[in-house]
Amino acid sequence: MSSGTLNDKVSVVLNDYLKSLDDRSEPVIRLASAVELKGIFKEGGMDMSLKDQEPTGDDALVAACENVLKYSVRTGHPHFYNQLYARGDFASIAGDWLVAAANTNVHTFEVAPVFTVLEEEVKQKVAGMIGPNFAKDYDGLFVPGGSLSNLYGLHLARHRIDPEYNERGGHGGPKLVMFTSDQSHYSYLKGSRLSGIGSRNLIEVATDAQGRMCPQALDQAIQDAIADGGTPFFVGATAGTTVLGAYDPFNEIAAICDKHKLWFHIDACWGGSALLSKKWRHCLDGADKANSIAWNPHKMLGTALQSSIFLVRDTEAEGNLLKKVNGTNAAYLFQPDKANTELDVGDKTIQCGRKPDMFKLWLQWKKWGDAGLEANIDHCFDLAYYFSEKVEASDSFCSVYPVQCTNVCFWYVPPSLKGFNFETATQEQLDQLDTVAPKIKEAMQERGNALIGFQAINGRPNFFRIVFANCSNVTKKDVDDVINTIDEIGRELC
Amino acid sequence: MSSGTLNDKVSVVLNDYLKSLDDRSEPVIRLASAVELKGIFKEGGMDMSLKDQEPTGDDALVAACENVLKYSVRTGHPHFYNQLYARGDFASIAGDWLVAAANTNVHTFEVAPVFTVLEEEVKQKVAGMIGPNFAKDYDGLFVPGGSLSNLYGLHLARHRIDPEYNERGGHGGPKLVMFTSDQSHYSYLKGSRLSGIGSRNLIEVATDAQGRMCPQALDQAIQDAIADGGTPFFVGATAGTTVLGAYDPFNEIAAICDKHKLWFHIDACWGGSALLSKKWRHCLDGADKANSIAWNPHKMLGTALQSSIFLVRDTEAEGNLLKKVNGTNAAYLFQPDKANTELDVGDKTIQCGRKPDMFKLWLQWKKWGDAGLEANIDHCFDLAYYFSEKVEASDSFCSVYPVQCTNVCFWYVPPSLKGFNFETATQEQLDQLDTVAPKIKEAMQERGNALIGFQAINGRPNFFRIVFANCSNVTKKDVDDVINTIDEIGRELC
After folding, report:
1. Per the CB < 8 Å rule, is B366 touching A64?
2. pLDDT of res. A2
């Protein structure tokens, strides 16, 4: 045990942990149930329960921290491909550590002067990255996650179409209707409920064979909603859908929004990182025409969780829209007779206190520079295409959808289903294939080889979705190893 | 410069920073404008801007971190009394560091097994702390801040009164009406807008001379709303109002909610920490009768920002209410054919990803034990009453409201206003007093002596609100020093 305070000791443990993340001999996860975890902690001298809690010495606390890390999923392991996030960038983790030590809120400049200025700098950088329209007029906020980012967009859009909504509420107002694709993230659905729009008034627009919103179907859905007495106001597009990684056709959607005077929001939480790459930013062509955009650097870019930014094109005509929609001018916090209050951001939020989430991204950006971040994103795309080629080239695998972002959707096809073809498959074959991914996943979890997600959607039996996010530590050899692992387990179990 | 990785080096800087926080010779703040900060960083070798960003070496990054800490407000300084939070508890900061290194989300047990179990343990502990009703049937979540906690309560309440709301939306439904006191936090107002209730349907109930909601006024307001064609459904009470620290009369409010069948929510974000103290938990008598409660350990208890917990009494009849209201059963994430999915929490949220905010509170609780946390809260109250006695005993100060929580509201009365009495004051005297607090505050900021907030509310000219939160490092001598500092600056400037 090292000397020093609890914080000194925990720092040593954490820095050792980060250094160990490239160790491929470590399991991605030591699988244990809730009951088993409670037993492990108890045996380790630290009950998870807080019942009748006595004080605890630092050494026992440090040992508990070590147990927490040991039995937590190693998201920084090269073989963690399970979510739309992976290893936290180490510079951003250092930034997050500083934020914790500084322990403040970015509601007022008064209590967070440096962070307030840095938030402006990061917003300016990201706005410029989106394109000239955003660079010219923007406002925005770091918010706790992409779902809330999308909710911010919805809230602003509603205010624009119906400035009395905030005061009057949904009762007695127009029947507002919003649109998103049938492949979009469920946060649009949650937002429709929470905001009082109602899920019935959230229209899921059909997508093409690759999961991209069909512009014609959108236009038709808008016309149908109007004919039905509704007031369309919001289109929530997606840059990188959750499962397929599809990018909606933003130019076409922008034209339709323009025609019908609807708010155009893009959930770019996952796929927005392509903007950092000269090679891949074409995926977001037309995104600069949006009214608002949500992007999560904590996903593909690997900024430590959470780092999520909401930007709105705040044109002169609509100046200070965030403040107009959310502001309450609380007398106890945003006093006009205080210094620098014109820089206070808090009144633009639906929250009050906010963590200084900009700092970790700022530090990460400083560390790697534009070129370093670009290389990170390019590598994610490279590995996705490499993995996809391997799938195409193998008899044991079958592609479910073409690669569009850095998620690859595929089936493992056991020997008994050799030559499987989704279009011509019998129900019996589909049922059999449906059991394969869960079985292989469970074995990988138990052995700690790798973590990869699966799901059954769009009428497809369970298929794997491997995700490449912040994977500069992942090599083509790693990808080969994962393919081989799945094949081996598949042959053994299926 | 120490050796090792960037993270090693930043850890050293942060641990040194924490150790320096008791140094009273350090200024609470080095006041600088945004323009000045940009100059300081540029001179220090690190432009705040990210324009055309090149990579940066670790030593320059560490130097930038040092500058960030140097020009940030020292919220851990004994003389930071400005907000409803102060020093971050060091054990909780260590916990937050671990969370950053582990870089995961508590949406599924699969990717956060340890944190998921610990969240259950912390919820159980807090539910038991509130009382037997909550201990018996509860559910809950850590959420990013108290404003969103209150929004969760509103969302559940609306579902109970109008189960079709989520689908139908506000349009075509009943005119729902919610109630809170005229001293409550503005998050109720923001929530009424965002949720589609409408601020017009948020009734601000009158308070007594100490800022507590008047039960008779509430009952009358409910009857008036019904007579006006409204459907009352939600009462948002407060345990520890933002400025005065008032605790609403929960037993009386519970009886009224019971009579009218309304949802009873308590915003205990600030004052809920009194539950930890045998001496002060009486402030929350009747709170156990609420349907839902929001509590922020990051406020008085000093858990590192953010740590905010929402709890709901999830009775058998309403089982799994959070899931019913927020659940979407996203096929890609909450697969029924995965192991341990019954423990997944993510589908209960309005978000998707959530930081494991429970861990820092868990580690803090383990460190200090029940008695240690109780002593922390008792010390906050002790200092508030000590400060108040000093105010009462001095000719240079005048109390604005009696102490109820650990905030003390007071005027500095300059010699020219000696004997000031609010009830009998002339308009000229009020106008003169209104300029005093801003002037003294500005001087304290410039000199870095202390940070204390002020505001003009309830028809009172600007008065100071000093707050005692997580102040085990603050002594009576510190309190005396603050009093003397204000007096000295006041005599000098007013």
Report:
1. yes
2. 56
Buried b (16+ CB within 10 A) or exposed e, B16-46: ebbeebeeeeebbbbbbebeebbebbeeeeb
Top-level class of domain B99-364:
alpha beta
> What is the rounded distance in angstroms from the CA atom of residue A472 to the CA atom of residue A478?
11
Contact B260, B288 (CB under 8 A): no
Q: Using an 8 Å Cβ cutoff, are B474 and B252 in contact?
A: no
Query: What is the residue type of A296?
Result: N
Lowest mean pLDDT among B91-105, B306-320, B393-407: B306-320
Domain with CATH 3.40.640.10 in chain B: 99-364
Q: Is the dihedral of CA B458, B461, B462, B464 positive or negative?
A: negative
Q: Classify residue B41 as left (phi > 0), alpha (psi -120 to 50) or beta.
A: alpha
- CA angle in degrees (0–180, nearest 5) for A175-A178-A179: 145
Region of poorest pLDDT, from A93-97, A456-460, B333-337: B333-337
pLDDT at B364: 98
Containing B412, the helix (H) or strand (E) segment is: strand B407-412
The answer to whether A95 and A364 are in contact (CB under 8 A) is yes
Strands lying side by side in the sheet with B407-412:
B80-81, B451-455, B463-467, B407-412, B397-399
Give the Cβ contact number of residue A52 at 10 Å: 8
Mutant choice from A26, A83, A103, A156 vs B, greatest count of B C-beta within 10 A: A103
Q: What backbone phi and psi angles, to 5 degrees, belong to A154? A: -60, -40
DSSP one-letter string for A279-326: TTGGGGTTGGG-SEEEE-TTSTT-PSS---EEEE---GGG-SHHHHHH
The CA distances from residue B252 to B208, B219, B264, in Å, are 14, 10, 11
Q: pLDDT by residue (tens digit) across A356-390? A: 999 999 999 999 999 999 999 999 999 999 999 99
Beta bridge partners of B177: B232
What's the sign of the alpha-carbon dihedral A67, A453, A389, A246? negative
Mutate to test the interface with A, among B22, B75, B103 (most CBs of A within 10 A): B103
Under 8 Å between Cβ of A397 and A420: no
> What is the C-alpha separation between A470 and A310, in angstroms, rounded?
21
* Residues on chain A touching B141 (C-beta within 8 angstroms): none
State the Cα–Cα distance between residues B282 and B118, nearest whole angstrom. 28
Distance CA B240, CA B358 (A): 23
Contacts of B174 in chain A (CB under 8 A): 171
Could you tell me if A465 and A387 are in contact, meaning their C-beta atoms sit under 8 angstroms apart?
Answer: no
DSSP state of B53: P
Q: How far apart are CA A178 and CA A255, in angstroms?
A: 16
> What is the distance between the alpha carbons of residues A133 and A291, in angstroms, rounded to a whole number?
10
CA–CA gap between residue A482 and residue A471 (Å, rounded): 14
Tens of pLDDT, residues B126-144? 999 999 999 999 999 999 9
Query: How would you write A318-383 as a 3-class SS string?
Result: HCCHHHHHHCCCCCCCCCCCCCCHHHCCHHHCCCCCCCCCHHHHHHHHHHHHHHHHHHHHHHHHHH
Is the Cβ of A375 closer than 8 Å to some Cβ of chain B? no
Percent of chain B with pLDDT over 90: 93
Q: Which residue of B has its CA nearest to A441?
A: B338
Beta strands in A176-302 (DSSP E): 176-181, 202-205, 231-238, 263-267, 292-295
Specify whether the CB–CB gap between B158 and B191 falls below 8 A.
Answer: no
**Which token pair is A54?**
């006595």
Could you give the ipTM of this predicted complex? 0.97
User: 390-449 in A: which are within 8 Å (CB) of B?
Assistant: 438, 441-442, 445
Amino acid at residue number A466: I
For the record, the structure tokens of B91 come out as 């054990």
Strand partners, A454: A464
